[in-house]
């Protein structure tokens, strides 16, 4: 088919040159053969382009270089054929080099795509292994708790086991292999479901209100996940046990400079003078420390509803965090 197409292109060029012969001035024997050579070279390759160039040169020499219908070689015909050869060889070589460069580029793109796919698979496998290892650590802490007779030590180990297990459950969602950031609405929805399910509560109504297309940077993913998870777990443990219609909502506001993430429950059990700084809660101390790592702040307010609010810069980045400000039970 390629050979047929090559001969057809040269034949069409010959027919067009014959058709235009009466309207063209002398000195244009190769006018229609140049496009034929270029077209064949682009579509079929340099080999077929060279054949088209050779056929076009022979036909032009025979039909259109005076004296016509002969292969007489004189100074004029020799100059014309030399000019034709120079042009078509240049055209064919340039097209060949461009096609080869495009081939190398296509091969490199395929190789890069394969490497990116392999990287994504390795990243997912790493996250899977990290999650499994964290779950194993949580199991070991739970086993160790059963051997401890001191109630306070047992409670501390149980709390640590729950936190490590939760991090293991959400670790695969914390990082994105393409580093484009996490979709915040989907991230918070999955996080809320994970924490509620981990606490064995199926009776809690859940809601996430978040602006669309809002992203969470890779640097912010872990501290935000831990602070929000701690707030949800704290609401479940201390805010909702006796409520007839327990509900937890995550509300997100963004103004271009800051992101405000609020975990709201309808427990309303905080005392009027409650502040995060005054509590001895280890969980709230951890949340405060992690909020500072993002360059933001964390506060809990009460009333008809209890609201744990994390404020962080919308751009990625943060500041070094100070050590935890206190230890104790996770009381609100």
Automatic annotation (TrEMBL):
<keyword id="KW-0067">ATP-binding</keyword>
<keyword id="KW-0547">Nucleotide-binding</keyword>
<dbReference type="InterPro" id="IPR038318">
    <property type="entry name" value="KdpD_sf"/>
</dbReference>
<keyword id="KW-0597">Phosphoprotein</keyword>
<dbReference type="InterPro" id="IPR036890">
    <property type="entry name" value="HATPase_C_sf"/>
</dbReference>
<dbReference type="InterPro" id="IPR025201">
    <property type="entry name" value="KdpD_TM"/>
</dbReference>
<feature type="transmembrane region" description="Helical">
    <location>
        <begin position="76"/>
        <end position="98"/>
    </location>
</feature>
<keyword id="KW-1133">Transmembrane helix</keyword>
<protein>
    <recommendedName>
        <fullName>histidine kinase</fullName>
        <ecNumber>2.7.13.3</ecNumber>
    </recommendedName>
</protein>
<dbReference type="InterPro" id="IPR005467">
    <property type="entry name" value="His_kinase_dom"/>
</dbReference>
<dbReference type="InterPro" id="IPR003594">
    <property type="entry name" value="HATPase_dom"/>
</dbReference>
<dbReference type="InterPro" id="IPR011495">
    <property type="entry name" value="Sig_transdc_His_kin_sub2_dim/P"/>
</dbReference>
<dbReference type="GO" id="GO:0005524">
    <property type="term" value="F:ATP binding"/>
</dbReference>
<dbReference type="Pfam" id="PF07568">
    <property type="entry name" value="HisKA_2"/>
</dbReference>
<dbReference type="Pfam" id="PF13493">
    <property type="entry name" value="DUF4118"/>
</dbReference>
<keyword id="KW-0418">Kinase</keyword>
<keyword id="KW-0902">Two-component regulatory system</keyword>
<dbReference type="GO" id="GO:0000160">
    <property type="term" value="P:phosphorelay signal transduction system"/>
</dbReference>
<keyword id="KW-0808">Transferase</keyword>
<keyword id="KW-0812">Transmembrane</keyword>
<dbReference type="GO" id="GO:0004673">
    <property type="term" value="F:protein histidine kinase activity"/>
</dbReference>
<keyword id="KW-0472">Membrane</keyword>
<feature type="domain" description="Histidine kinase">
    <location>
        <begin position="125"/>
        <end position="316"/>
    </location>
</feature>
<feature type="transmembrane region" description="Helical">
    <location>
        <begin position="35"/>
        <end position="64"/>
    </location>
</feature>
<dbReference type="GO" id="GO:0016020">
    <property type="term" value="C:membrane"/>
</dbReference>
<dbReference type="Pfam" id="PF02518">
    <property type="entry name" value="HATPase_c"/>
</dbReference>
